[in-house]
Amino acid sequence: MTPALEVVDLVKHFGPVRAVDGVSLRVGSGEVVGLVGESGSGKSTLGRCVTRLVPVTSGEVRINGRDIARLSRRAVRPLRRDFTIVFQDPASSLNPRMTVAEIVAEPLRLHRIGTPSERRERVLDQLDQVGLRPEVARRYPHELSGGQRQRVSLARALVASPSLLVADEPTSALDVSVQASVLNLISRLQAELGFACLFITHDLAAVEFVAQRVAVMYLGKLVEVAEREQLFRAPLHPYTQALLSAAPIPDPVAQRNRQRIVLSGDIPSPVDPPSGCRFHTRCPVAVPRCSVEVPPLRQVAGSLVACHLADGSPQ
Ligand SMILES: Nc1ncnc2c1ncn2[C@@H]1O[C@H](COP(=O)(O)OP(=O)(O)OP(=O)(O)O)[C@@H](O)[C@H]1O
Ligand SMILES: [Mg+2]
C-alpha cells in the first residue's frame, strides 16, 4: 500500500544552518509515527518541509505517492486538503479576527467543499467531534482557554478529512492539567478517522501513548527508527538510550535501579556538525572510527539504526 508520507533523503539548509541533513522516513496509511529528539535537532523543520510551509533544499516529500517537494506553492495549494499541521501554540496559529466557525470552515471554503449550509453543518459536527459545544462557534480565539483553542486548531486541521496530520508539539504549550485530555483526543480522533500522523514531541510518555513507531532525530539526521515496544524496551542507539534514561518512568523500582546516562555538553551547532557520526562528541561508547565514518541508517534486529557499534544486543 502506498504510504501516506514518504520522505526521501530530505535536506533543508537555512544558509549555513544544516537543520535537516538527509532524512528518509515513511509513515504508513493510518499509522502514527512519533518524532523525538532534543531541542534544535530539526524536528519542526522536517514537519514544515513535509507540509511545504518552507521550500526544501533537496530530496522528496511524497504524500500518497505524489512528490510535492518540487511543486510551486501554487501547485501545492489544491493538494493541501490532504495534509495539515497543528502547532504547539494555538494562540498564534488562529486568526484573532475570525470566529471559531469561520476558522474551522476556512479549509472547506478554500477547497470549495460543500454548499454554505453543508459547511455550517460540517463545522458543528467537527466541533462536536473535538469536544466543543455548538455555542463556541460564535466566539473568537481570545475568548477561549488554551485547551479549547487547541481543540479548534484540531477541528480546522481535520475538517476536510486529510490523510496526513503533522502535529508539532501539540500539547507542550498547554497547562499540564489539559495536556492529557488533548492527547487523548488526538489519539481517539486518529483511531476513529484513520488519518496518518507524524507526531513531533519532546515528551517520550506522549510518544509511547500515541505512536506505533518512533523516529529519533539528532542534529539533522535520524539515528534510530523502531517499533514503539522495541524502542522503549531495547533502544539500540546510544543517543536513544540516553534520551530514555533521562525520562522519568512510572515504576519507582525500575527508576531506582536504572542507570542514568548523562550526555555531556549541549547539542553541537548545525552550522558545523561533528565529522563521522554526529553524536560521537557526546557518545559514551564512541570508538575512533566514529569520528571518521558516517554510520548509515541500517537494519539491525528489526529496527533501523545509524551506529557502527549496534549489533542488535542492547548496550
Ligand atoms: N528559519 C530559520 N532560519 C535559520 N535557522 C533556522 C530556522 N528555523 C530553524 N532553524 C535552525 O534549524 C535548527 C533546527 O531547528 P528546529 O526548530 O527544526 O528544531 P526542533 O527539533 O524543532 O527544536 P525544538 O525541540 O526546540 O522545537 C536549529 O538550529 C534552528 O536554530
Ligand atoms: Mg520544534
Helix/strand layout:
Elements: E1 5-14, E2 17-27, E3 32-36, H1 43-50, E4 58-63, E5 66-67, H2 73-76, E6 83-86, H3 90-93, H4 100-110, H5 116-129, H6 146-158, E7 164-168, H7 176-193, E8 196-200, H8 204-210, E9 213-218, E10 221-227, H9 228-233, H10 238-246, H11 252-257, E11 298-300, E12 303-305
Helix pairs in contact: 4-5, 4-6, 5-6, 6-7
The structure holds adenosine-5'-triphosphate and magnesium ion.
What do these coordinates show?
The chain is an alpha/beta fold and 315 residues long. The chain has a domain at 236-315. It is built from 11 helices and 12 strands. It has helices at residues 43-50, 73-76, 90-93, 100-110, 116-129, 146-158, 176-193, 204-210, 228-233, 238-246, 252-257, and strands at residues 5-14, 17-27, 32-36, 58-63, 66-67, 83-86, 164-168, 196-200, 213-218, 221-227, 298-300, 303-305. An 8-stranded mixed sheet has the order 6-7-8-3-9-10-12-11, sandwiched between helices. The protein has a 4-stranded antiparallel sheet with strand order 2-1-4-5, covered by helices on one side. A hairpin with a 2-residue loop joins strand 4 and strand 5 (66-67). The protein is globular. The structure holds adenosine-5'-triphosphate (ATP) and magnesium ion. Adenosine-5'-triphosphate binds at residues 14, 17, 19, 37, 39-45, 202, 270.
